[in-house]
Amino acid sequence: PRIVTIGAAQMGPIARSESRPQVVERLIALLRQGAATGCELVVFPEATLTAFFPHWWIEDAAELDAWFEREMPSNETAPLFNEARRLGVGFHLGYCELVEEEGRQRRFNTAILVGKDGQVIGKYRKIHLPGHAEHEPWRPFQNLEKRYFEVGNLGWPVWRAFGGVTGMMICNDRRWPEAWRVLGLQGAELVLLGYNTPRHDPTTPQHDRLAEFHNHLSMQAGAYQNGCWVVGVAKAGVEEGIEQIGGSCIIAPTGEIVAQAITAGDELVMARCDLDAANPIKRNIFNFARHRRPEHYRMIVER
Ligand code: ING
């Protein structure tokens, strides 16, 4: 057995007025809880250093850029990296990245995987950006990720980390089977993701009652159909008037939820994950080499 003890560190709402040092203190408190319960890896949510600003129409460029991180770690986030290194605990962190690349400023919805030594192992930039690119004032709130972020340009990589093959995706990615399969084809045994998911989708209010169901359905399917552990972590609760679902969970390669958050606030749930539990799925029912028929799948990428 290759046991890795993992914590899903759900965050409650982050107020617009909450400073990064204040948020980092909350993250460190969850990290310490994880360390105290034997976690080797703690998974934080998507965009978890600030309120989820894509919910707002922001015209002023400087105001918008203040929501992004220009370096990681920065002076404000270094305490999290230092504490993680002191405790010998790795972590996943979602944040909004502003970088100078190819001679221009670029903005991404980003996640990093950090080792027990406090060093960044890998980075992923969100590819499936939901919502809309223009101001739609008819909506009770916006989702302007298509406006504020570029489509991620790093693909879905995997890294050998925490005793197995580890990959990441972010939020809306989990609803798209292609994201899971790209990781599955690389042998992913552990997929980490954060999410900010409003209950209300004004385009289909009749589905609001299904928000938690669709959240777990997407991740449980991804886990089972690719034979991987999944850690899905929410920024939950009513954030600046918008209710976001919780339901952070740890899912086995069988698709079974083995641990689940029960609040809409800061809450750590953990599980001892045997990465070898991926093998019976990957070697049998979803043995890609034996059963997949890519010659019949072309439409998936050609349409
Ligand atoms: N949020 C949401 C998600 O995919 C969304 C967008 C909300 C989609 C409600 C469908 C219904 O979970 C992000 N940030 O992708």
What does this structure look like?
Keywords: Hydrolase. Residues 4-275 form the CN hydrolase domain. The chain has 303 residues and is α/β, with parallel strands linked by helices. It has one domain (3-302): Carbon-nitrogen hydrolase (Nitrilase/N-carbamoyl-D-aminoacid amidohydrolase). Helices cover 25% and strands 27% of the residues. The strands form three sheets. It has a six-stranded mixed sheet with strand order 5-4-3-2-1-14. The protein has a six-stranded mixed sheet with strand order 6-7-8-9-12-13, covered by helices on one side. Strands 10-11 form a two-stranded antiparallel ribbon. Helix 1 packs parallel to helix 3 (78-87) and helix 5 (177-185) runs parallel beside helix 6. The model has no long low-confidence stretch (mean pLDDT 98). D-[(amino)carbonyl]phenylalanine (ING) is lined by residues 130, 171-172, 175, 195-198, 201.
Brief descriptors of the model:
binds D-[(amino)carbonyl]phenylalanine, hydrolase, 6-stranded mixed beta sheet, C-N_Hydrolase, alpha/beta, N-carbamoyl-D-amino-acid hydrolase, hydrolase activity, acting on carbon-nitrogen (but not peptide) bonds, in linear amides, Nitrilase/N-carbamoyl-D-aminoacid amidohydrolase, 303 residues, Aliph_Amidase/BUP, globular
